[in-house]
Design a protein that fits this description.
Elements: H1 10-27, H2 32-39, H3 43-51, H4 58-67, H5 72-87, H6 103-114, E1 117-122, H7 133-143, H8 149-162, E2 174-180, H9 181-185, H10 191-204, E3 210-215, E4 229-233, E5 242-246, E6 251-254, H11 257-273, H12 277-290
Parallel strand pairs: 1-2, 2-3
Antiparallel strand pairs: 1-4, 4-5, 5-6
Helix pairs in contact: 1-3, 1-5, 2-3, 4-5, 7-8, 10-12
Length: 291
């Protein structure tokens, strides 16, 4: 892991810790159930260690390192990762945000925060990294009727705070977004709200690290008609690219090579038939004038 462990984000440390513990377990020739039997822990606990879902006790890491015959250097490094996960918190793990986030989305924000590049196709609504506060609240309203105002405000704040990765000082996220024309024409709220949202999309798309394309209705059938998805890429080759899927019922992230490749190929093919960046911005401005 590049850089000082103590300066790393908890999300990154959880991910590295999970990757290395899984490698050590496999090198030892053990499956999760065998580790659970040898440690008197539950199989679910072993899984949590390797998926990086939650903070990890340094003492638990030491137990696993002894079981896996890890050398002193590896043991010290992994304990360092665990120490960061226990003593530091990423912003989305604060007491005000954690209760309002689904576990799958919580994990996704952790991945998004450490990604170097993100490719997203969206067919129904403006992608989260491009949404305005008013647009977010309109989207949440029908899904969270009856929720206390504080909870709705916190859910909105989570979505808006995420957007800081586009303008952070060190290594801002490189974002490539492709949206269906329907995203532009589906009026969320009223026409004034939607005009403001479209103007915001154009404004964010001016950032040098952001590319925005539109798939016009005239393109007909296209490579991503199976639905929206996100592909995440990371600066360290140790962390394999991942895809993230979300729907009304569940969320899922996977680094399965075949699935990632299918999405990456589909995204490239879609980019080839979509309008170019400048043409897309012109179309967004045209749609806004028609509202």
């Amino acid at each position: 892991m590049a850089g000082d462990i103590e300066a790393a984000s908890p999300a990154l440390c959880r991910l590295y810790l999970g990757i290395e513990l899984r490698k050590l377990r496999k090198a030892k020739g053990l499956v999760g159930q065998e580790v659970a039997d040898l440690t008197a822990w539950s199989p679910a606990k072993i899984t949590r260690f390797e998926t990086g879902d939650k903070p990890v006790e340094p003492m638990d890491v030491r137990v696993l390192c002894q079981l896996y015959d890890a050398d002193a250097e590896a043991t010290s490094r992994l304990e360092g990762y665990a120490f960061v996960t226990k003593t530091k918190r990423d912003w989305w793990q604060s007491s005000q945000y954690r209760p309002v986030m689904r576990p799958g989305f919580n994990a996704f924000i952790g991945l998004e925060a450490i990604a170097s590049e993100l490719h997203e196709y969206q067919s129904e609504f403006v992608p989260g990294l491009l949404q305005t506060e008013e647009y977010v609240r309109e989207l949440l309203a029908p899904m969270y009727q009856g929720l206390p105002e504080d909870e709705i405000r916190h859910r909105t704040a989570v979505r808006l705070t995420r957007q800081e990765i586009l303008t952070r000082k060190d290594h801002p996220l490189k974002l490539a977004v492709i949206v269906n024309e329907a995203v532009l024409r589906r009026v969320v709220g009223d026409s004034e709200l939607m005009k403001s949202q479209l103007a915001h999309m154009v404004e964010v798309a001016q950032l040098p690290n952001v590319t925005l394309q539109v798939v016009p209705f005239s393109a007909g059938s296209h490579p991503c008609m199976g639905g929206p998805f996100i592909v995440l890429q990371f600066p360290d080759p140790v962390i394999k690219p991942m895809i993230y899927l979300e729907n009304l019922i569940t969320t899922a992230a996977t680094s399965k090579a075949d699935d990632v490749e299918k999405c990456e190929v589909a995204f490239r093919d879609l980019a080839a038939v979509a309008l170019g960046h400048d043409e897309s911005l012109s179309m967004i401005e045209k749609v806004s004038k028609e509202l």
